[in-house]
Specification:
This protein is an alpha/beta fold and 793 residues long. It has 31 helices and 15 strands. Helices cover 54% and strands 11% of the residues. The longest helix has 68 residues.
Length: 793
């Protein structure tokens, strides 16, 4: 459900307030607060956290379970406490086949919300849904039964220790015994053959030549011995053949039996898992006592009146089992109840239910038919009070329901979160002793004049422009910002020179509005002369500017991470973080996602997907000829209708390629919710680039890694290695051939911002012959002025 849909439904229902409690994340906070103000509905920001009492103990035991706990901020201090808890929960991520889940432990709850913590009394918690912190304790036996049933089904795919297996083992044993018997027989024959010494008898025979009788007798014995030895040798050869045959048969049999043995071993392993689970099962009485104690513990952590037992019903079997018991626990303990409904879509319309089912099928990698039959999916919408009371009355007594409904209002009255806007811009650390940032900029600019304008090129109008700029920079308070950027860019240049060749182009010349600043040019932030090209400083910074100035800094990818580490070492490890991006389901990906879960033929899916333009954020509505194609193809029509339902759904959270935040304190997590990006191994603010600046009051720095700089640097270093020549790329002049042979012909592969086919086409048609033409074209090739390109050409 989108936030817009949620608020439109809330407005339709006339509700005074609405809470946002996404699973494990606070990324929707700023959009939520803005829409609440727009629709004049009280916002209650919060989160549905993943809770485990002890994450380390669970990890050691190999457990990956987690329970849900709803947290809602009563005020801004409560929201900050929730942010801190979420921040810490990302230090306890558990990875499963369904994804990665940040877990809040009991220790986190106590330190962020418990007595003597800054968040104590500022947050309301509820026991959440059937996967909640109380329901799961009551469902322990039920879950164990489901778990053992799953294991039993898995176990039964393998071979048990039955008569067949035992007979097979006995046969294998008998075959081995037969081999052993033959080996014993072989050894006995060999020993006996060895004991027959015919050579000695023949030597003795020679001494009996004068004794005919004795000679004949011994000769007969020798003949018998030779005959016997020959017979035994033949028998030994036969036994050896029998051994080889028996071993071959035994090996083949054992090989055929190995699969059965492995299957039996797997069967026994799973069987032990089942036995271990059953051995730890608690009785109903024990589960009830544990649940009561847990409820009291949560009340003790959050404070009396700040923990509620949540009652829900979506006609799910497990809810029927636990919700009446939770109502009873409320009466027994005095802990208040509150009525709630899991709301994953706005209304119970066919379209909303279908959209939810499609997204769920994609999320859990199921077919649509599997997700459609999941219990409760048809009830997870924003209900009226009457609908909520009606469905709860199917399992809960009316008196308890009335109390639970009344307590919704109690929570609404208790929660009043007002955004406090402030600026948390970093203060520059470094420079000369006692030197202010504006003084440092003035000094750096002065030192840069003879470098940038040698030989008396410095003019009076330039000096006046510099004084003007420094005055604006001082009045707007951005001197620290410029000093910080200049400092880390200079560090990046030094890193680039720390190589055997001592050359490189690891920092770009500058892009965007900052190149219009003479101060930036003189201090070394940019390398483009704004006076030569008539660039305006006011586009970068002026007294009426609402948004923050933006210096686009480009880095060789080899040094980018090192420069960021330098910034962390200077301003604090936790004072620096990256910025979140929100990945939405665009037209093509939505089409393919729907096709995957609905079994629509790949040929149709591919045809529809290819009709959607490849431009960023293109939707199914942008596909030319899509309606005509669907008119003759009802399957394609169904695909398109489903696609429209889920386009723009947020499907993942990533990390901005360039944006980095530096805060004015030791921990940016005090100002904004944080999350850990596993793929990048980086901490990320849970808001996008615009929200970081406009809403959180944080300052974004650009650290864009560019392959173009990698290529230039590699080229310069190869030239130095192979020819002994050091080239300063900023002093290389642009010959006419650069324009006539490269730009005018569209030979711009690897030229930053000129690599796309559209840009190349424009270059070929315009045929630029000077740098001013290039400036015009790169400025024109943007979403706004792009429509005027034909006129420019």
């Amino acid at each position: 459900m989108s936030l817009n849909a949620m608020f439109e439904r809330a407005k339709e229902l006339g509700v005074p307030a609405i809470a946002l409690t996404d699973h494990g994340i606070l990324a929707g906070f700023y959009d939520f607060m803005k829409l609440a103000k727009k629709h004049e509905i009280k916002p209650i920001p919060g989160i549905e956290a993943y809770y485990v009492p002890d994450a380390e103990a669970d990890d050691e035991a190999g457990k990956k379970t987690r329970q849900h706990l709803v947290l809602m901020a009563k005020d801004i201090d409560g929201f900050k406490a929730i942010c801190r808890a979420v921040y810490r929960s990302y230090s306890h991520i558990v990875k499963t086949s369904a994804g990665s889940f940040p877990r809040m432990t009991e220790e986190i709850l106590k330190s962020c919300f418990g007595p003597e913590s800054e968040g104590y009394g500022h947050v309301i918690a509820t026991s959440a849904c059937m996967n909640g912190v109380l329901s799961q304790l009551l469902l322990e036996a039920f879950n164990l039964k489901k778990e053992t049933k799953t294991l039993e089904d898995k176990r039964d795919k393998y071979h048990p220790v039955d008569a067949e297996f035992l007979d097979a083992l006995k046969t294998e044993e008998e075959m081995q015994e037969a081999v052993n018997d033959l080996i014993s027989k072989r050894d006995a024959l060999a020993e006996e053959i060895k004991s027959i010494s015919i050579v000695g008898m023949k030597r003795r025979l020679k001494t009996l030549e004068k004794e005919p009788d004795e000679h004949k007798k011994l000769a007969d014995e020798i003949a018998c011995a030779e005959k016997r030895k020959g017979e035994m040798s033949d028998e030994l050869a036969s036994v050896k053949k029998q051994i080889a045959t028996a071993k071959t048969k035994k090996t083949a049999y054992s090989k055929s039996l190995s699969a059965m043995k492995a299957s039996v071993e797997r069967y026994e392993t799973i069987n032990k898992q089942i036995d271990d689970i059953l051995a730890g099962a608690r009785s109903s009485e024990e589960m009830y006592v544990n649940t009561v104690n847990a409820a009291k513990n949560f009340e003790a952590i959050f404070g009396k009146g700040n923990f509620y037992i949540e009652l829900q019903y979506h006609r799910v079997t497990e809810e029927t089992m636990v919700m009446p018991i939770l109502a009873q626990i409320s009466k027994e303990t005095g802990i208040p109840v509150v009525a709630a409904n899991d709301a994953h879509y706005a209304t119970n319309s066919r379209e909303d239910v279908r959209a939810r089912t499609l997204v769920a099928a994609m999320r859990f990698n199921e077919k649509i038919d599997e997700s459609a039959v999941v219990e409760g999916y048809g009830e997870m919408y924003l209900k009226t009070d009457e609908e909520l009371k009606s469905i709860l009355s199917e399992i809960i007594d009316i008196e308890t329901i009335d109390q639970a409904m009344e307590n919704i209002g109690v929570i609404v009255d208790a929660c009043n979160v007002e955004l406090v806007h402030g600026q948390h811009y970093p203060i520059f650390r470094g420079g000369e002793p006692g030197e202010t940032p504006i003084q440092r900029l003035r000094r750096l600019a002065g030192e840069g004049i003879p470098k940038r304008y040698p030989g008396g090129e410095w003019k009076k109008e330039y000096a006046e422009r510099l004084d003007y700029e420094l005055g604006i920079i001082e009045k707007t308070g951005y001197a620290d910002y410029l000093c910080i950027v200049q400092d880390f860019l200079e560090y990046g240049r030094e890193l680039g020179a720390k190589c055997p060749e001592e050359v490189g182009y690891t920092i770009g010349p500058g892009r965007g509005s900052a190149v219009g600043s003479l101060t930036c040019y003189l201090s070394g932030i940019t390398s483009v002369d704004p006076m030569r090209y008539g660039l305006l400083f006011e586009r970068f910074l002026n007294l009426d500017r609402v948004s923050q100035p933006d210096i686009d800094s480009d880095f060789h990818t080899e040094i980018r991470a090192d420069v960021i580490e330098y910034v962390k070492s200077k301003y604090g490890e936790k004072a620096v973080c990256n910025i979140m991006t929100k990945g939405k389901m665009a037209g093509r990906s939505a089409v393919r996602g729907v096709g995957r879960v609905t079994n629509i033929p790949e040929s149709i899916v591919d045809t529809v997907a290819r009709m959607i333009p490849t431009t960023p954020n293109a939707k199914i509505a942008d596909a030319p000829g899509i309606d005509e194609y669907c008119d003759s193809n009802p399957v394609a029509r169904a695909l398109v209708e489903d696609t429209r339902l889920i386009e723009d759904t947020i499907v993942n959270y990533g990390m901005h390629a360039a944006g980095v935040i530096i805060s004015d304190n030791d921990d940016v997590g005090e100002y904004v919710a944080m999350m850990f990006n596993d793929a990048k191994d980086q901490w990320v603010a849970q808001c996008d680039m615009g929200q970081c600046e406009a809403d959180a009051g944080l300052l974004k720095m650009d650290f864009l890694g560019l392959n173009n700089l990698d290529i230039i640097t590699d080229t310069l270093r190869r030239i130095k290695r192979n020819h002994g020549v050091s080239i300063d790329i900023e002093k290389v002049s642009l010959e006419p051939e650069v324009f006539s042979e490269i730009f005018a012909k569209g030979n711009t592969n690897c030229v930053f911002q000129f690599e796309s086919s559209g840009m190349k086409d424009m270059l070929r048609k315009f045929k630029p012959d000077c740098m001013e033409d290039i400036i015009l074209l790169v400025a024109a090739y943007r979403p706004g002025p792009m429509q005027y390109i034909p006129d420019i050409i």
